[in-house]
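WP5 quarterly update. Target: DUF1329 domain-containing protein. Source organism: Pseudomonas cuatrocienegasensis. Length: 453 aa.
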Amino acid sequence: MTSHFTLKSLCLALFGTFALSTCALAADVQALGKSLTPFGAEKAGNADGSIPAWDGGYTRVDPGYKPGGKRSDPFAADKPLFSITAQNMAQYADKLSDGTKAMFKRHPETYRLDIYPTRRTAAAPQWVYDNTLKNAERARLVDSSAGPVPEGAYGGIPFPIPKNGDEAMWNHLLNWRGTSLSLDFRHYLMTADGSQVMTTDGKAVQEMPYYYEDGTPEGFNGDYWLFRMLNVGPALRAGEQIMGRTNLNGDQSQAHVYLTGQRRVRKLPNACCDTPTPATAGVMSFDELSVYSGRLDRFTWKLVGKQELYIPYNTNKVQTLADPSALFAKHHLNPDQVRWELHRVWVVEADLAPGKRHQLPKGRYYLDEDTWQAMLGDRWDANGQLAKTLWSLPAVLPDLPAVAQLSSGFYDLNSGAWFIQNLYAGKDSQYAAVERYKTSEFSPAAMAGRGVR
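Structure tokens (predicted):
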């Protein structure tokens, strides 16, 4: 078999430096599923073995798991290798994000990372791997009215060998997390004085038409994420609904809300970017959901490279808690409940694009190489001050199979408040894979039909 180095050398000899990047990409495509994982991560571990080799991920379903029910922690017996605190964080500074360091400085007595053995559990169905390989050869970015969007990608990671920051962020936006899902969760706001406020008790349906197994790029209309949520609590918000249809071209995305006081379905005029989202009672902006979501044209995106970083990972323990309050310390997540591991991440920086506006004009995002999900993110304000650090709590879901970002949230480094969305702890039904929904489930008519009158 022609080696990666030999193919690049041959391309250079035959076609010169102008075509070298294209040939190098072809060589990397050949490496998918071999020296690279099917999603484009380095299959090998790191030099000192603290990051192991990827061996196919974790796909062993707990025999006690009932589809749609509570999820278990397959690694409950693991013990922390060590802990990072404000007192020893300098020793690990090169493997900590700016936001993590800021939390140590803000809460030196209570903030802690318990570091567990790294388990590269990421997995996906074979048809997703097959589509990812096809995407590596056929997908490209094209201009749209809402910035660069993928063309020719379908059913897998669009750019497993990214050439720039836009491609890497589209890998995050189109990461594999299942196709059709039923979700029961709560959102909580923690105020600066430590008070807990449940802002949402939601029942939701979610679907990713981009991941219909029997679909094709030609038949895909660009709506890649469909979501409809009904609030069953708290009492003040019971009966409210929100529905979103997110398109590759953000100008074609739509969001509708149903408010019980108005008893009408209304289309939101600006469901993007730094606009507060009703799904979180206005606590998070649309583009902070899942660390980052939505259109890319507000920023220019730079692919900085890879680094080894401590990130939350395999955090199934969080979802097994009987009482959500067990996860909450006064000023941050309870360190006893959160598992951190060392993983390689892609670092992507965001700077406000010319002529655009945003409350937080600079960001940095850390994308797990195995899943492409943004596991951590930091955002700076117009004065250059670090204002927010965002995080996710990914769990291993062997029935899909996947490692999926279940819960996520942020710490506000100015006010001291913090927020968590999509917390499944204490729910009998959690993140359930279901049969494909009817198209009518994601329509204004469905909202109106289920509205409280």
